[in-house]
Design a protein that fits this description.
88 residues; mainly beta; 5 strands; globular
Length: 88
């Protein structure tokens, strides 16, 4: 599945620390989300994406290879590839 990141929210975790909700718009026009936690091993894949999303000059970030885990949920363990569109 291919989707564009539309929003990332940092939230406090009730277990200590924080986590991120990442919201997507799929090519199918539907909204999706996933949750990533810095203490989990898959975070090393997500951290560069989170950092790039907050940078100036990055227009859009698309991820290919996302796996749906439910009706509107993306599996955070997806082995995705990143396509960034940069403002010129």
């Amino acid at each position: 599945m291919r989707a564009k990141i539309v929003k990332i929210e940092e939230k406090d975790s009730k277990y200590g620390g924080f986590f991120y909700f990442i919201f997507f718009k799929g090519e199918d026009g539907k909204s999706y989300r996933t949750c990533v936690y810095p203490r989990y091993g898959n975070f090393k894949r997500w951290q560069p994406v989170i950092n790039d999303f907050t940078k100036d000059g990055i227009k859009e970030i698309w991820l290919d290879g996302l796996v749906k885990k439910g009706e509107r949920l993306i599996d955070a363990d997806s082995l995705f590839t990143v396509k960034k569109e940069v403002l010129v």
